[in-house]
Automatic annotation (TrEMBL):
The chain crosses the membrane at residues 30-49, 61-80, 92-112, 124-142, 177-197. Keywords: Membrane, Transmembrane, Transmembrane helix. Pfam families: Pyr4-TMTC (PF25129). It comes from Streptomyces spororaveus. It is a multi-pass membrane protein. This is Bacteriorhodopsin.
Length: 212
């Protein structure tokens, strides 16, 4: 069961990252909120390096794949992100802001690691930043006034990719804190899926009824 849920999470989040790269390049934007991207990039880089140094494991392989995919998503942010900011944000300001955001992402991960140790830090930081991402995706939709740089594939895969470790750590390993965070993630993820589905449902309702 542990291996199955780990693989489901790994595959689902890999779909999120591949689709985020595709959509970002297609729409000439970035497809993951930058604060969540910074935390994710720092988490996956930190634990991919640690896992490689310790030995090969299923989660370690997954972390390496995610870290490589994150590099490309970071590229889309650096390539297209400034265009979505006000004109007074010059290239030096954008560069400085980006360094601050991504540097903070690494600092937060390392503080979790120093305070909680590997076992708890990996879980607590992952679920907290996951909840942040869930909320920021909704803010993404609102700020962009639609699904630019977003897709239903990302939304559904993100939900499933979070649900699997919620069941693994929250239910199988009986961790109420993780279970609570995972449930909150699902609430936000399902709300986001609903936002992306709404235009499709509206179009379906507007279609003329078939004649008899």
């Amino acid at each position: 069961m542990d291996l199955i849920l780990t693989l489901v999470s790994g595959i689902a989040w890999t779909v999120v990252y591949v689709e985020a790269i595709r959509v970002g390049l297609r729409d000439r934007t970035y497809a993951m909120p930058v604060a969540a991207l910074a935390l994710n990039f720092a988490w996956e880089t930190t634990y991919a390096v640690r896992d490689i140094s310790v030995g090969i494991s299923p989660q370690g392989v997954v972390n390496v794949v995610w870290a490589v995919a994150d590099v490309v998503i970071v590229y889309t942010y650096l390539r297209f992100g400034r265009a979505e900011l006000p004109e007074f944000v010059t290239r030096p300001l954008f560069a400085g802001w980006s360094v601050l955001v991504f540097g903070t992402g690494f600092a937060v991960q390392w503080l979790f690691l120093a305070h909680f140790g590997v076992h708890d830090a990996t879980r607590y930081s992952a679920f907290l930043q996951n909840l942040l991402m869930s909320g920021l995706f909704i803010a993404f939709y609102v700020s962009r006034q639609g699904p630019l740089g977003q897709s239903l594939t990302i939304a559904v895969a993100k939900w499933l990719g979070t649900l699997a470790p919620t069941l693994l750590f929250g239910v199988v390993e009986d961790a109420p804190f993780i279970l609570g965070l995972g449930i909150l993630c699902s609430v936000f993820d399902l709300a986001y899926i609903g936002l992306l589905l709404r235009p499709r449902l509206t179009r379906l309702r507007s279609l003329p009824a078939p004649s008899r």
